Structure formats: C-alpha cells, structure tokens
Amino acid sequence: xxxxxxxxxxxxxxxxxxxxxxxxxxxxxxxxxxxxxxxxxxxxxxxxxxxxxxxxxxxxxxxxxxxxxxxxxxxxxxxxxxxxxxxxxxxxxxxxxxxxxxxxxxxxxxxxxxxxxxxxxxxx
Length: 124
Hints:
The chain is mainly beta. The chain has no helices and 11 strands. The strands form 2 sheets. Strands 2, 4, 5, 6, 9, 10 and 11 form a 7-stranded mixed sheet that branches. A 4-stranded antiparallel sheet has the order 1-3-8-7, with no helix packed on it. A hairpin with a 4-residue loop joins strand 7 and strand 8 (78-83). It is globular, with a radius of gyration of 13 Å.
C-alpha cells in the first residue's frame, strides 16, 4: 500500500527557514513526479512546487519563487521542500503528492497519491 509521510513542519518566525520532507513507501517512485501543495484555513489547496521524475525539472508558484526549493532523492523515495525567508502568509498545512501521468503536474487532480500533511506556522 502506497504511503506518503510528511515531516519537518513547525512554528517559525518570519524570515526563518524550514525543511519539509516527504518519504514514500509501498512502491517505487523513481518514475513519479513529486509536488508540494498547501492549504490555509478557509482556502483551497494550492500548488507550491513540483519536480519531474527525470531531469529534475522544477516549477514553482510565483508566491514562493526564489524562496523555496524542491528536490528529490530517488534512492530514498524522498522529496524535500526547503523554505527560506518565510512569511506569515506561508502559514498552512503542507501536503506532498506523487503522480506519474504528467511531467510537472501543478494541479491537485494530476496527482495519484497524497500525504496527510504537516502544519507550518509562521509568526510575525
């Protein structure tokens, strides 16, 4: 059974950094694209970043471009999201996702597997 487990969330002051991890089990994910999404209270889940399964091609939401970096370790079935210069508006539950139908999926319905989420809170 495929399972994605996020970790690394927490409380940080504005301007600080966090590194999220997402470990996958129950399958081989070297041919999957990975993505990070976030959802703030009362808002829809929104795309943050993705990385392709080959070539390490990335894509970012404009709101995080230049501050966040997505990376992957295929040997460990793990994807990371390094978040720097965090802002209060980055506060949300962050979800990782995996999918193998698109090169750089950026929509919720383009992913097959989802984690349970990890809370990130940025205080001002």
